[in-house]
Queue: 2 jobs
Job 1
Amino acid sequence: MGRFVTIKDIAKKLNISVSTVSRALRDTYDVNQETREKVLAMANELNYRPNFNATGLVNRSSHNLAVILPFVTNYYFSTVITGIQEVAYQQDYNIILHITNDSPERELAIIKNLAASNLDGLLISVSSDSDATAHFQKVMDTGVPIVFFDRVPDTIHTSKVMQDDYNGAFEAVEHLINSGYRNIAHIAGPEGLDFTQKRKKGFLDALAKHNLPVNERWIVHSGFSQENGEADALELLKQKKRPDAIFAVNDRKAIGAMIALKKKGIRIGTQMGIIGFTNDPVSTIVSPTLSTIAEPAFEIGKRSCELLLKHIGKRNFIPEEVILPGTLIKRESTRR
Amino acid sequence: MGRFVTIKDIAKKLNISVSTVSRALRDTYDVNQETREKVLAMANELNYRPNFNATGLVNRSSHNLAVILPFVTNYYFSTVITGIQEVAYQQDYNIILHITNDSPERELAIIKNLAASNLDGLLISVSSDSDATAHFQKVMDTGVPIVFFDRVPDTIHTSKVMQDDYNGAFEAVEHLINSGYRNIAHIAGPEGLDFTQKRKKGFLDALAKHNLPVNERWIVHSGFSQENGEADALELLKQKKRPDAIFAVNDRKAIGAMIALKKKGIRIGTQMGIIGFTNDPVSTIVSPTLSTIAEPAFEIGKRSCELLLKHIGKRNFIPEEVILPGTLIKRESTRR
DNA sequence: GTGAAAGCGCTAACAC
DNA sequence: GTGTTAGCGCTTTCAC
């Protein structure tokens, strides 16, 4: 087992004390310029790497950030991670990745087993059905900061980063209206989730603004998958009075709905408009291409991580809630 | 800053020594059954969590695994990660995620800055253009094991996990031939990559087996993106003698090719067959649906991680090369 | 400006 | 079966 080079090795080689080496390496305190250069040169020559276990032990910090989220296998989350990683990388922080599979039990288990002592902070997007948030609060109480993104619990006082669900939804529905659709249905997400409510509210308010009626039966709640979207659309088609457009809570469900419509021989766009939310790359691949609200996923990752780093840096950093706007993207699925 | 509970705290409360606590906690050596239970109970009560920095310092181990790969924003890699995470989670290992953006420079920088002392092992899928592998060897020389997956360098002697690129490609092309296509082109990946070569070889051998001619101009190399696929297909269409089917190195490029064909008014399937590789979920969403070879991405993640854990467990574990078979999935794009 | 020494939380001889 | 002690690699008083 090749032992790693330590500051002791450097000290010995240079015939100076470890404390001087330590000081020189960290570029702090007053160390003789010449000594510092010698140390740096030797460190470089020996390919010295600080042992984070040791520094962590002393400083009570590890340069590790945990990221806890439901999935990585979709466009949104994988892009958020890429954004997080981008700033973490710049600042020399490690990302420790935990995947909950959207299971509250797994989420709880992960948090419980978390070696908080080994972490400088957490970035979390909560599971769909998780309404308990006490475990998060406990972690924060031990002094480890958390920043939530996308799926945020409103009971916890800390920084949060999300897209502007309300306005995005509003804009999507208004686009539908401006395109000439009048009977607009909503394929929604799981009812308990905060952003499901926000998008629904945006939907309702857009209808209200344009004096369009709300048909309660045209609002269908279910999960986030394509299959859910397909089933929801079928549900809508069963009704006597059919809508002429659908606002889906996300692109996956919108695409599921498109599949259902195609099966039923309904022409997307001309006969029934569809708009999604996310701007998943598949929305340009499906036919017709899918109109949607682009979420700033990468930016959300970056901002979350930046905020977390601020919390870590300042003990009493005042929590911020960042809401990033989405962008309406018009494609074929809303062309009559 | 809430200090964490340490074994010292437990010892003090129970009026015993830290070493007894340590032994009881680790369920090793002979500790009095009664003492052990008392310790466990107290640990539980105080919500004790081991400090990994401390254990890591002593044991020279951290229970951290680094995963280094080009992207997380695609189906294949995000699924591999999920597989890795699955076994890591079971065994109480952390995943430290590094994303290279497929840049050899970034890959090198990550490896160089790696605090190897903080890692028990690495899981790596190399960057496209990375032909230098000395940096990997250096890490291994320090005693930290590496397992490569998917994109593996053949110069390094260690465990590797990959799909059966050769046979998958062979099967894909044979399926094309069996479906009645005779003039088969190949949209390939970057030339330097090992699996690009393997898939190409499978392509060539399938043609040879069926006595079909190889047209060098029908083999186009470029990157992995959808745009690359589109451009490659356009390239093929320019030629006097056009192929009647395309085997694409992956689904992304296949879909790019489909887009190109559609633009040119060529009917996919009847006029030109297309088959991809991966079984990205989009392959069922595109129209027509895309035939492909399903890669066992999740399984690849699991097996890689299992192998790495074996390397970590046994100093002199003999490297294994695992090759997992793909599965032919017939869909509309190869129906004449 | 530099060195000696204590200590972060834990494990592993070594005593008894 | 349990306690004492040294030490993992590093930072940080406290001397000088």
Job 2
Amino acid sequence: MLEPGEPKFRRRKAARPGEIVEAAMAVFAERGYAAAGLEEIARRAGISKGSLYLYFETKEEIFHAVVAQAIGPNIQAIRAMIAAHPGPLEELLRLVAERVGKLIETLPVGGVLKMVIGEAGNFPQLARVWHDDLVAHALGALTDAIRAAQQRGEVRSGDPRAYALEVIAPMLLGVIWRETFVPVGAEPFDLPALAHQHIETMIDGLVAGRPKNREAAT
Amino acid sequence: MLEPGEPKFRRRKAARPGEIVEAAMAVFAERGYAAAGLEEIARRAGISKGSLYLYFETKEEIFHAVVAQAIGPNIQAIRAMIAAHPGPLEELLRLVAERVGKLIETLPVGGVLKMVIGEAGNFPQLARVWHDDLVAHALGALTDAIRAAQQRGEVRSGDPRAYALEVIAPMLLGVIWRETFVPVGAEPFDLPALAHQHIETMIDGLVAGRPKNREAAT
DNA sequence: AACTACTAACTTTCCGGTCAGTTATTTCCG
DNA sequence: CGGAAATAACTGACCGGAAAGTTAGTAGTT
């Protein structure tokens, strides 16, 4: 099991926190906060439970780090989308669909989303951070873009914030579906295809003075 | 505190199970499964912890009862909608919007939804029941209606199951929003209004050979 | 040889579950 | 009809296990 010259551990102070957060994200996503054991997080991170406490004070602090880490890259993606949206709304929506469709396929955002939803009652400050730093930004940017398009006469009237929710909801629910029901035998959704189809539907429903597509594009 | 003739408890065998399930639903919805304490459930139900075990074997059984109870009335609502859908798709969609918009305002379905999402990893059989008995029915019925409308040439081509998800997603996400982010200060959505606006948007996007609304209706 | 990242066994706390005893209610008998 | 005996709904103190958190000592590293 252990080679003679093989040390039974290595000192790698710098690399530990990242490894711990990554392992914790996986376990939290699978089990939820309460049912996630520190022993298992430590095992997956390749260290002992005691070592966790060299880098984090409590379990809750690990949880915070996981949520914070899940926010970071997404903020980047949102800023990038905002920066690229001066054109007509159609373009922005298609861009959103493509980016979001790919993001949710790759990043483990689904598991974290489940956690935040499930633990919002127990850790309100966490839900607040997630909302203020990520969700409100994303929804706000989209709302602003839709409101601007309305003022240009490009989009029908109606609550722009509600329109923004309508745009992103199927993708998010698709992620939740994948995490919740697919493991118990439900038919999965092709998320990028869903995103694409939904945006085309919404464009035909939203955009004023535009000939409707007869066929949904591939 | 206690009047002389006032008994310190009453024997009300018949009424207990319902009261327990109702109290448990509230606590589970607030705290999630693991963080919900039997002591608190008992307190809110007006009995002692020991009495819980006169009516349920384990905590998990209480949890199952809560989920089952949350499914029941919704199944009724779905069957009613299916029964009333022979007309054109527009009518069905408006009916769905109205029913769902009202259901989610009144029933505590949001809390249960949170639970099922959050605990799907720990109780797969629960997620399976929820899916098979409720979600798959609802989505399937809507998918069938959309597919039929496509065959009548009433609705554009595309994956009908994805269209069904697109239709219901904003309402569900609105409920999740209310349960997750509104308590920490997020702007709430007017759910019936959201449902109505979304259906009108989807109709304009989905239905073929139909003049588009210029204005979103009230 | 000094330093400290790291481990593993330990302590503490909490909570689901149990049970012996208590009290409201019903039944039965005088 | 009234009071005592029987019944079972109910309580609350207790138990055991699991998991968060601690620490004394070990072993890589410099």
